[in-house]
Design goal:
Elements lengths: L2 H11 L17 H4 L6 H7 L15 E7 L6 H9 L6 E7 L6 H12 L4 E5 L5 H11 L5 E6 L2 E3 L5 H9 L3 E11 L5 E7 L2 E3 L5 E3 L14 E2 L8 E4 H6 L12 H11 L3 E12 L11 H19 L2 H19 L7 H16 L1 H11 L6 H18 L12 H13 L1
Parallel strand pairs: 1-2, 1-4, 2-3, 6-12
Antiparallel strand pairs: 4-11, 5-12, 6-7, 6-11, 8-9, 10-12
Helix pairs in contact: 4-5, 9-10, 10-12, 10-13, 11-12, 14-15
């Protein structure tokens, strides 16, 4: 039984957690009044912070680790070895190969033989379906109560599954948990630089990887609420994953994880960051070696526009699309950027989304609750406040110094509130 059929059955018996879609007022006038529960979200998450430990005698639920790969023979062996060397006692591994043309499958089979791994299953796709559909196919072949997603260039630590499983076992409202991702130059050369400590989105519908590029000094060593779990190192509750329909397979390159996190919040689930779960990530990706930078930029921009059209409130969406188009036009004119291929990819992506607007809007209405819930609005507010405080009055967006006075004024308003 596939993901879509399971999701349809679950949706038929579930209730939407929607509420009135009141437009979010941006910044300045007592931000916390827009959503009162935003103020207490960090405190609530801190109460859940506990050290990694055993499940105290309880049975360890089955975790299915999904690895989607395409032409990654250099790293897939070390990735699979890291998973097979982990200390969690009850797990299975599903390797989904998107029709690799190199020796990826041979490396996987050799690694399985070396470890005598009977809990590893290989799924061979007839062509490259991409990360979203490939992950859904992997889920359809899995049996775990929880599903962990890894890129083929990611190498988890031995205890990476314990804390996410503990958190979700204690609280059924948690739909997904994000591991702390650190950067790696190679499978053996691992850095103390943060790749991501969870995905955030602010009220302006901008997405951010929290802590990206920062040295890991323990500044993100507490359990906290985030907006979405980045694909690599995401551990998701199977029931929640199927209830919201899994990954949207229309996303070819990125933002499928943002879309999933957004739909989880709309359904009333929470997404947390687990600092004691550590994954090292090279960021090679599973898309193969892309020869044309504009192609990557175009599909990335297209996916971003799709995710906000599918999920954002109408007022915020219209405002963001207008600003996005204006920025792309100014970049094309050389005002903000000398790389005009970036502006061209954005304009083409915007044109594509406008042409396909009816189809995307249909996916919006059938994918999940159409209105923002209180919890969704609260996490957007929390993310915005968190990023403003971390900016300390500096610009939130690179090379846009004219935002600095606005950020300072917003911080003063927050302090008064």
């Amino acid at each position: 039984m596939g993901v879509e059929k399971e999701a349809k059955d679950l949706r038929a018996s579930s209730k939407n957690n929607g509420c009135g879609a009141r437009a979010v007022k941006l910044m300045l006038n007592n931000l916390t009044e827009v959503c009162p529960d935003a103020r207490s979200r960090t405190t609530q998450a801190k109460r859940e912070h506990r050290k990694v430990g055993d499940l105290k005698g309880e049975a360890h639920p089955l975790v299915s680790v999904i690895i989607v790969t395409y032409n990654n023979e250099e790293v897939i062996g070390r990735c699979l070895s890291s998973v097979l060397e982990n200390n969690y006692p009850n797990y299975e591994v599903i390797v989904v190969d998107n029709a690799s043309k190199d020796g990826t499958l041979k490396v996987v089979e050799e690694t399985m033989s070396n470890y005598n791994a009977l809990n590893v299953k290989i799924v061979k796709n007839p062509k490259n379906y991409g990360i979203s559909k490939g992950s859904n196919i992997g889920v359809s072949h899995s049996n775990g109560k929880y599903i962990a997603f890894l890129d083929s260039d990611a190498f988890p630590d031995a205890n990476w599954l314990f804390q996410p499983v503990e958190l979700m076992e204690r609280d059924p409202s948690i739909g997904a948990v994000q591991a702390k991702c650190l950067r790696a130059k190679s499978p053996s050369d691992r850095l103390k630089l943060i790749d991501t400590a969870g995905g955030l989105m602010d009220l302006g519908l901008q997405t951010y990887a929290r802590g990206s590029g920062e040295e890991d000094k323990g500044q993100y060593d507490e359990v906290d609420e985030i907006f979405y779990a980045v694909h690599t190192g995401a551990i998701v509750r199977r029931k929640a994953f199927l209830e919201v329909g899994g990954f949207d397979e229309a996303f070819l390159l990125g933002y499928h994880d943002v879309d999933l996190g957004w739909r989880l919040w709309k359904r009333g689930y929470r997404v947390l960051f687990a600092p004691n779960s550590v994954v090292h990530h090279m960021r090679r990706g599973s898309t193969g070696k892309l020869k044309w930078r504009w192609w990557r930029n175009y599909h990335g921009e297209r996916s971003y526009l799709m995710v906000i059209v599918k999920n954002a409130e109408r007022t915020a969406l219209l405002r963001r699309l207008l600003l996005y188009g204006l920025k792309a036009l100014l970049e094309a004119a050389g005002v903000f950027s000398s790389r005009r291929e970036v502006a061209a990819s954005r304009l083409l992506a915007l044109w594509w989304v406008l042409r396909k607007l009816k189809l995307i809007w249909l996916r919006r209405t059938i994918s999940c609750a159409r209105h923002s819930t209180k919890s969704e609005r609260g996490i957007l507010m929390k993310c915005s406040i968190d990023m403003l405080k971390r900016s300390r009055g500096k610009t939130l967006w690179k090379h846009k110094l004219w935002y600095k006075p606005l950020n300072s004024a917003i911080l003063e308003g927050l302090q008064r509130a």
